[in-house]
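Suppose you are handed only two things: the residues of a chain and a line of SMILES describing zinc ion. What would the bound structure be? This form records exactly that question and the answer produced for it, so the two can be stored side by side and reused later without any lookup.

QUESTION INPUTS
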Amino acid sequence: MHSRIQAGACLHTEPSEDDLIQATETGLVCRRGNFVIDPWKETHTALISHAHADHARPVAQVYYASESSVPLLKRRLGENLDIRGVPYSRTFELGQTRVSFHPAGHVLGSAQVRVQSDSEVWVFSGDYKRDHDPSCEPFEVVPCDTFITEATFALPVYRWQPGAVVAAEIAQWWQDMQSEGRPAVLFAYSLGKAQRVLSELTAFCDKPVYLHGAVHPLTEIYRAAGIRMLPGLPIDLDDKQRDYSGELIIAPPGASGSTWMRRFPRASTGFCSGWMRVRGNRRRRGYDRGFVLSDHADWPGLLQTIEQTGARRILTTHGNSTALVRLLRERGMDAAALETRFSEEEDGDASV
Ligand SMILES: [Zn+2]
Ligand SMILES: [Zn+2]
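ANSWER OUTPUT
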């Protein structure tokens, strides 16, 4: 059909018009279902994988998303939008397709999208991870024929320690700063990463953490969803007397190097990101500490997941997919990269 023989006799299928889901100018379009997954241009019906800004844009008339992501989507896209929450695993019909959301383990409410047409099953992973995370629903393997996987950290150098191990490093750093009488300012994405850290830290203490204005309201949504976290207090920038020595403060990466930081003289700074796995990134950005913590799958996690889905065909998103596609083809699998506009790590208030 659309296959061709490559050097080394490995067979692969380029993305084509016949595909159930196609990457277009508008987003990941499913014509048989009359919807777009994570659209980036105006459309009628959107299926949203999760509330990060590169996946959830205010461009549709009707939105479907996992039930637990609805409060986050309303906060980010607008309270009055037509956002319809669907419980995980519940199948509903759109056009000639049957659709369902399944946990992606990335942030609260994050979903993989399963689309079935006749007997053909496609799964769009959204962003996902396999590691334990007490702040969101665990990833579920969804068998399929074609798996569209993210490939943010698709290089063998990216391997994660368990979140509890990284949280112990953060707790130790906070304690060290208490002894030195300095504030510890931790930069972490305001949706997902910050709440994961607050949740993991409950194993070490019950002290309150001060939260940047971008982090605090999202954390309250997590708390309302029943996620157990350290108490979070908003920072009162007008209270010039308040001394934050010995406190932990969580802020989005965009606040790093801004005037906001003047409130915390002598602060030690840390950054929580999968990119911290590469030493030069920390040095270049001038953080005192780098904590390797990602809400995306690491290299072994990507390979394990691809295998577990049993998919015959693999399509990759997020741009960083050359090594992954090459490896899968070497293993005789049908793999190709999809052109999408998802960023490598997100949440709109940070450029990494
Ligand atoms: Zn994401
Ligand atoms: Zn993404």
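WHAT STANDS OUT: Residues 52, 54-55, 127, 342, 346 surround zinc ion (ligand 2) (CB under 6 Å). DSSP finds seven helices and 21 strands in the chain.
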